[in-house]
Design brief:
Blueprint lengths: L1 H7 L4 H25 L1 H22 L11 H30 L2 H7 L6 H27 L8 H28 L3 H16 L12 H8 L2 H13 L9 H4 L1 H26 L3
GO biological process, one term: response to antibiotic
Subcellular location: Cell membrane; Membrane
Membrane topology: Multi-pass membrane protein
């Protein structure tokens, strides 16, 4: 009786989950194949943060001071790791916006695939690319004199917080790519990436800013991740007098969870409303 009920009652929850994962992986593979077809774009995206490290570390680094002392390159690298996660938002918006404008997303919606496959596959591809970018930046940092001074577990936790930030920002990029059509979305995101990065502790300590500006920078979600990663890596420049600076590790978890909780439902709702 139970077997017959299972057979006639449609797919189980486990079946639906496996179906969604398989379809999501298909979309991820499609995006990976696009990297192979356009290697120049991929290489340029990977080398841009490396160029930023060299520029700030060597060109401007001699004029920078770290509050409390310490090497500026060790101060800089956690900020550059986080900035690389922010720069990925533009890539997400571009990919989603292009697929939507060319009707690819609508074709996916008309196919017998899990409704979540397109956004989940996009997220998986972007996270894979971000992991590769982060690994490249770690190697670059080691070559320019950066190192982590904590335990391997703390270093792994720092990498995890960086990827958690990127995971939350993926949903921001997917939503913007679905909601805003044309080049305007990409231009707007690229325009906001640098103010978001510079109005933080990524390149300079917030203690060196005017009091009101430092307070704004401290409450930038990016600043919490950067400060937490500096703390876990044992690099100089973490800590501060404000509550949020003293609880950077906690807020480096809270901020991405809040961002994801806001934008993931928006992505699902927007994806379902396409074509209506």
């Amino acid at each position: 009786m139970n077997d017959n009920t299972t057979r006639t009652g449609g797919p189980t929850v486990a079946d639906r989950l496996l179906w969604a994962l398989a379809d999501g992986w298909t979309i991820t593979r499609r995006d990976i194949f696009h990297w192979r077809r356009r290697p120049g774009q991929l290489v340029a995206g990977l080398l841009f943060p490396v160029a930023m490290v060299l520029m700030f570390g060597f060109l401007f680094g001699g004029a920078m001071t770290v509050p409390g002392g310490g090497d500026y390159r060790e101060f800089l690298m956690p900020g550059m790791f986080a900035m690389a996660m922010v720069f990925g938002v533009g890539e997400t918006v571009t990919a989603v916006s292009d697929d939507t404008a060319r009707g690819v997303t609508d074709r996916f919606r008309s196919m017998p695939m899990a409704p979540s496959a397109v956004v989940v596959g996009r997220c998986a591809a972007d996270m894979l690319r971000s992991a590769v970018t982060l690994a490249l930046l770690v190697v670059c940092g080691l070559l320019v004199g950066w190192q982590w001074n904590g335990t391997p577990g703390e270093a792994a936790a720092g990498i995890g917080l960086l990827l958690l930030l990127r995971f939350s920002l993926v949903w921001v990029g997917v939503y913007v790519g679905l909601a805003v059509r044309g080049e305007g979305a990409v231009t707007a995101v690229h325009t906001l990436e640098f103010p978001l990065g510079f109005l933080s502790n990524a390149f300079v300590a917030t203690a060196s800013m005017p009091l009101w500006l430092g307070a704004v920078a401290d409450w930038n979600p990016l600043s919490s991740t950067v400060a937490a990663v500096r703390e876990l890596f044992g690099n100089p420049g973490w800590g501060g007098e404000s509550w949020i600076a003293q609880n950077a590790v906690l807020m480096a978890v809270v901020w991405p969870l809040v961002i994801t909780a806001v934008f993931f439902p928006l992505c699902v709702r927007r994806f379902r409303s396409l074509g209506r």
